[in-house]
Specification:
Two copies of one chain form a homodimer. Chain A is α+β, with helices and mostly antiparallel strands.
């Protein structure tokens, strides 16, 4: 089946979609994005993603011009049209296509989304462990904005890959802030720890859901800066992201961490997450 | 005359040029760029721009695949074809168009450049003074790379515009580093000062030429961090950029600075710059 894209209100084959070279997403990284998971042909945590999208737009001083309700409806209709059951939506909004100038232009925004299939996630605990690798956190101080200015994340991820790892952990003055495309959690003495959202940490949606699940399950959770040293010596470590759900961490800079398998609390949280996903996406369609 | 673009070896109308939505310039800010000035149909400081382009490519772990000599030749032939006599070349290279993934792709790079006419620069000292406005320097720590991850610069520039100014000065822990699209110089007691190139300062080409001219003219020049306070109280202030050449500064955060006109040393440097430009671009074509 041909991959489709919704581009400024028009649906067409993804391979036919074209942008102008002066789109501000291309010349200025002047845009924001979301990645939303599709399970059983249904969107998971769509309101939370749209909340964040609106906050990101605010963060770049851009009013989101497409109506939120319409956007949600268009995405839902689009997924039905694509037939994608297990996958993701990639959505991006930029300030539009206008002759190059740092000053904000008066032009229509570029809004697009498309679906990509993904293999179904393995059952909780069934994945192989993630290998983390530390890189200095040299990013800007508004990482809470989900902007397309992702060059530092791309460089970090590829530094980790070149070192034989899977994912980069940013370390800012000794603090493990987050990973290049995921949030970091550690478990110490039965309690969950994660660095707070803010200058250096994106408000991950899976992070948010995991914190809510921990509360429901009676697992104490604290948001405070985690030092790299206490992360490495933690009882369990895991990362969260929309596409990965929860990934238990097997090594850090080439040395084993965690118990060498998915830890008990990580497993409990991942099972609860998959149960919530099942409940929200397998129930009869509204 | 129709604006033209050179896109991956093909010349076409700029308005017909289109990029794929998964170009890494659009989704990851995974690219670098240059702006090169055209005077009298000739490029000014092309070798310096190509040197910096190569360093920027290195900074983002990307080998520049187009041969440098060929690129220079193509740009020169392109300018002749466009007929632009006074203007600029905008050039951008990205890691290419490939299904979205942080990992570096195996695909051809996207290389493009196009020309835009500019009004001839006013004679030295003839411009109106620039109004500067301070913003916190929250950018990443590799500003020496001329990447398209310009969102922080765009936000800073527009914050300055909203405050009634022309240009934002980034202030990092009390140090005036550079401006949103220009470098900052001050003159104190007959000597030139500018913050050194590095984490927070782009190696501006006009900055480079001005430092060389100062040497020739016997004006002492020092590269060291300039505090915001000493910049504001300086005898003269000016900014440099490829499109603006030298712009004397009239105010900072709404308060007058400098002598209220283009200062003597600023004027001397701008005259020398325009003389060099004239010499290099009015001489018979090679």
């Amino acid at each position: 089946m041909t991959d489709l894209i919704w581009l400024n209100g028009e649906i067409k084959p993804l391979s036919d979609a074209r942008l102008g070279v002066e789109d501000r997403g291309f010349q200025f990284a002047d845009g924001v994005y979301e990645v939303i998971r599709i399970y059983n042909g249904r969107l998971f945590a769509l309101p939370e993603h749209l909340d964040r999208l609106e906050r990101s737009c605010g963060g770049i001083m851009m009013k989101m011009l497409i109506d939120r309700q319409r956007l949600a409806r268009e995405i839902e209709q689009f997924i039905a049209k694509t037939g994608v059951k297990e996958g993701m939506i990639y959505l991006q909004i930029t300030r539009g296509d206008s002759p190059r100038n740092h000053a904000f232009p008066q032009c229509p925004q570029t809004t697009l989304f498309y679906a990509r299939p993904l293999p179904p996630t393995a059952p909780a605990g069934g994945q192989s462990g993630v290998k983390l690798y530390s890189v200095p956190d040299e990013r800007w101080k508004r990482c809470w904005i989900k902007s397309v200015a992702l060059l530092p994340n791309v460089l970090a991820k590829n530094t980790a890959l070149a070192a034989g790892a899977d994912e980069a952990v940013f370390v800012d003055d000794g603090v493990a802030t987050e990973c290049s495309s995921s949030n970091l959690f550690v478990v110490r003495q039965g309690a969950l720890l994660t660095t707070p959202v803010g200058a250096k940490v994106l408000p991950g949606i899976t992070r948010l859901v995991v914190l809510a699940l921990a509360k429901e399950l009676g697992i104490p959770a604290t948001e405070r800066p985690i030092s790299e040293a206490e992360a490495i010596s933690a009882d369990e470590l895991f990362i969260t992201s929309t596409t990965r759900e929860i990934g238990w961490v097997a090594s850090w800079n080439g040395k084993p961490v965690s118990p060498g398998r998915c830890g008990a609390i990580t497993l409990k949280l991942h099972k609860a997450l998959q149960e919530r996903i099942r409940r929200e996406t397998q129930s009869p369609q509204r």
